[in-house]
Amino acid sequence: MQKLVGWLATLAAIVIAAALCVIAYQGLRSQASPELSAPYHAVALTNGQVFFGRIDRLDGNYTVLRDVFYIQSRQNPENKEVANVLIKRGGEAHGPDRMMLNRQQVLLVEPVGSDSKIGKLIAEQAQVR
């Protein structure tokens, strides 16, 4: 009987240790930064703005973007037609070289495919520079 109790205690300890390992692994995995699979990513903010750029850093309190683009709608005054134009950020008066976004304001991050419309426009602008 004592052997059975000892065996059950050992088995219970092993099960508890395995459960703790699984819980610890899940906790570490949920805090790890996602894998960035593309050179450019779309970053949507909670205020509706979307920026496209190279993610320099995704961990911590700030998401850091470099080589940043955004879409601006422009209306032709003659025919009132609206066209969306991809604008490279950095030509502003303060000449930013990166954008630091509060992580709490980031709604989602998605890869920009090189064959997507945005991906092609970014590639075109890179050839112009």
Query: What is the CATH topology descriptor of the largest domain?
Result: SH3 type barrels
User: Percent helix among the residues?
Assistant: 25-40%
* Strand and helix order: HEEEEEEH
Task: Provide the β-strand percentage band.
Answer: 25-35%
Oligomeric nature of the chains: single chain
| Overall CATH class of the largest domain | Mainly Beta
What does this structure look like?
The chain has 129 residues and is α+β, with helices and mostly antiparallel strands. It folds into two domains: 32 residues; 88 residues, SH3 type barrels (Roll). It has two helices and six strands, in the order αββββββα. Strands 1, 2, 3, 4, 5 and 6 form a six-stranded antiparallel β-sheet that branches. The longest helix is centred in the N-terminal third of the chain and has 30 residues. The mean pLDDT is 83.
Question: Could you write a compact summary of the structure shown?
Answer:
By secondary structure, the protein is an alpha+beta fold. It has two domains: 32 residues; 88 residues, SH3 type barrels. The chain contains two helices and six strands, in the order αββββββα.
Topology:
Layout: H1 2-31, E1 41-45, E2 50-57, E3 62-75, E4 82-88, E5 99-102, E6 106-111, H2 117-128
Antiparallel strand pairs: 1-2, 1-6, 2-3, 3-4, 3-5
